[in-house]
Amino acid sequence: FVFHGGTSFGFMAGANLDAASGRLEPHVTSYDYDAILTESGELTPKYHACRDVILRHLGRSQALPASISPPPAVLAPRAVRITQHVGLLEALPVLTTCTKVDVQPVPIEFLGEGTGYGFYRFVGTSSSSSS
After folding, report:
1. Whole-number pLDDT of residue 81
2. By the 8 A CB rule, do 27 and 16 touch?
3. Residue 15 in 3-state DSSP?
4. Which one, of 6, 9, 69, lies nearest residue 33 by Cα?
5. Are 2 and 32 in contact (CB under 8 A)?
6. Cα 120–Cα 125–Cα 126 angle in degrees, nearest 5
7. What is the mean pLDDT of residues 18-36?
8. Which candidate, 25, 27, 11, 9, places its Cα nearest to that of 117?
9. Cα–Cα–Cα angle for 80, 86, 89, nearest 5°?
10. Model pTM greater than 0.70?
């Protein structure tokens, strides 16, 4: 039973590959899963339904408060202007904490990394014969 929702921050939410179109369909990072409180702490209809069940079993009509807290403040969305950027390949030397040269890909856990991303690069030669 999920009591309170949350969010997977950054790029950890993942995506599914749509086989028909070949496109990635990103997951929403919220994981409320129909919890009784949203990730921002708001009460949901399920909260009130659970509250009603508890009240029926207690045999008292007003034993529990109707609300446990005021609704949280919600900020209005704002536009953000991006003025600088850097490419991933350009930033790799600064971001990289571990490098390994091997003939086969190695899972990042074998490199001492518990979470995060691995960047794999293949440098090789190709032989082609023309007839």
Report:
1. 92
2. yes
3. strand
4. 6
5. yes
6. 110
7. 78
8. 11
9. 140
10. no
